Amino acid sequence: MGFSILFLIFLTVSFLASAIRIMNEYERAVVFRLGRVIRAKGPGIILLIPVIDKMQKVDLRTVTLDVQPQDVITRDNVSVKVSAVVYFRVVDPVMAVVEVENYLFATSQLAQTTLRSICGQAEMDELLSEREKINTRIQDILDIDTAPWGIKVIKIEVKDIDLPAEMRRAMARQAEAERERRAKIINAEGEFQAAEKLSEAAAIIRKFPEALQLRYLQTLREVAAENNSTTIFPVPIDILRPFMGAHYKGDG
Is 175 part of a structural domain of the chain? Predict the structure, then answer.
C-alpha cells in the first residue's frame, strides 16, 4: 500500500514537472501538439500535455548581429571591405519557427548579400559621404525580405569601410589640394577686401588733405612706442608746407 502511494506521488510529480513551464517576459513558447503548431504561449506559467506537446522557445529581445567585412567592388571599380551591424527582433514567434529553419543564420546571410549588393551599386564617394542613405536602402530591403519570417529589422549601420592603401594616399593628396585651394581663395578675398578699404580711405584723404598729416603723426606715435634705438623716418616737404605758409603769413 505504501509503495503504491509513493509510486503515485512520483508519477504526479513527474507529470507536473513535464507539464509546467515558466516563460520569462521576453520569451514565448511555440507549442506543437502532435506535430501541429497550436500557438505561442507566455509569458508566465504555461501547461503542456506530456508526450503529446512539444515547445520551442523564442527570444523577443532585440538581437545585435555583426556582419563580417565583405569584399565589395563599387560602381567606379574600387575594391573595398565593408562591415555593418544589424539590429532586429522577432515580432511573430510562430512564423520565426515555422517559416525558416534558423532565423538568426538566415538573417545573417541575407544581411551579407544585401550589403554587398547595395554597396556595389554605389560609387566610392557616395559610400563615404552618404552613409545614412546606404543604411536606409539596406534596411528597407532587409525589412521586406525578413517580414515572412516574423522579423522586424529595426536599424542597420555600415560600421567600417576599409580602403586600399593607394586609395587612402590619393584621398590624402586630394584633401591637401582642396585645403590649399581654400587657403588661396580666403587669402585672395582678404586682399580684395583690404584693397576696397584702402581705396575708400584714399578717397577720404583726397577730400580732406589734413587727414594725411594726422595719419603721419599717428604713424610716428606707433613707431615711437616700439623699443627701437634709432628710427629714421622721411618727412615729405609737402606735409610741412601748410605750416611754413602760415609762418610766412604771420611774418607779413
Answer: no
The pTM of the whole model exceeds 0.85: no
Beta bridge partners, 27, equal 59
Q: Which residues, at least 6 apart from 247, have a Cβ–Cβ distance to it below 8 Å?
A: none
Same domain assignment for residues 143 and 202: no
The SS3 assignment for 26 reads coil
Per-residue pLDDT tens over the stretch 6-34: 767 777 777 777 788 889 999 999 999 99
**Does 231 map to a domain?**
yes
Partner residues linked to 28 by β-bridges: 58
Q: Can you tell me whether residue 47 is helix, strand or coil?
A: strand
Domain span at residue 39 reads 8-58
> Looking up cell 606715435, which residue turns up?
221
3-state secondary structure of 62: coil
Total structural domains within the chain: 3
pLDDT at 252: 44
pLDDT at residue 101 in the model: 92
Residue 62's nearest CA partner among 28, 86, 43 is 86
| Same domain membership, residue 70 and residue 28 | no
